[in-house]
Fold these 2 entries.
Entry 1:
Amino acid sequence: LKSIYFKKKPEQNKKGFNIEVNEYRANSLEEVSDINKKEDLTNIFKNTKLVGILFNTYIILENTVDDYFYLIDQHAAHERIKYEQYKKEYEKEDIAIQRLLSPEIIQLTNKEYSIVKDNLDLFNKLGFEIEGFGLNSVALRGVPLIFGKPQIKELFFDILDNMKSNLNTSYDVKIEKIMKMACTNAIKGGDKITKIEIEELLNQLAKANSPYTCPHGRPIIIKVTKRDLEKKFKRII
């Protein structure tokens, strides 16, 4: 798929998802119904049909059996998928790497070079192939495939800046912050995606461990009932 990279489909948890979700509450004028936090998305999607996309951002699914519909933020959904995929690859020490046709030579300051040298093992474990290249320079030969086709130097310095600002934090915190950066290549709000891409996105979201919030804590999916709409249109009190 053009917009979505999926290495492999994770196995479905037959016992259902153990989901911990931040509560989503709209204001009183735009109140919506909360989703059952432990409800399996596979079951949720089973009786729905794709209606369309709102503002090239929100996927609309209608449940004609139980009279409600869902709005799904395509960017937040893809962020969750990419984050969990990258984390899973890291934990299994099996990160897919895209090797560059020619190495990217990056000039660094003394401090930056020292940080890279001290964290070389971390870079390697996260799927970055780096080696020294003369005085205060490194050659970047590969990056994690999940990042797509990034601006190589910009990506490298974003990660380096993150390390600079977290020198005194734990190893795990650094990893977590870098993994969240993988989301930068996710489908954006406003991006046009095809029906096939939508179906694959929803299929992968249903298999996520935490499918209701993105890695940054924003809601992915909102449930609106027919009753909610009827109240807004004063059909019922």
Note: Confidence is low (pLDDT under 50) at residues 1-33.
Entry 2:
Amino acid sequence: MEIFLIILSIALAAAGIILTAKIIVIKKAAKEINGQFSRLLQGGTNALINISCADKDMRKLACSLNVSLRELREKELKYVNGDKDLKAAITNVAHDIRTPLTAICGYTDMLKEEKDSAKSLKYLSIISERATDCERCWKIL
């Protein structure tokens, strides 16, 4: 009976050592994942999480986080490109509106000073045409 208790004690001690070592390895892997994940979120890099641990559950966790990082980067890229496209569209629309408005203002100033009714009618026609151009721009929006 005494031998059985000695063997059982040795087995329990070995199991305790193995479990302690496994916990230490998993904690180390968790720290690696946490540190890398934080850096990757802050930095503008396309690197992924890489761990030295062979534990399959910790590797699955790193893989899942890498998938999420890729998706996040794709969404960020779409956002940045969409923002650039929106700014370009606004610039183009502003230009398309500003050009006829500038002409309208110029012809209105000329109309105020014009005494000849034929020229006044010509200027009014041009102003009307430019205003129609502006109206078309607004309808596109």
Note: The chain has a mean pLDDT of 85.
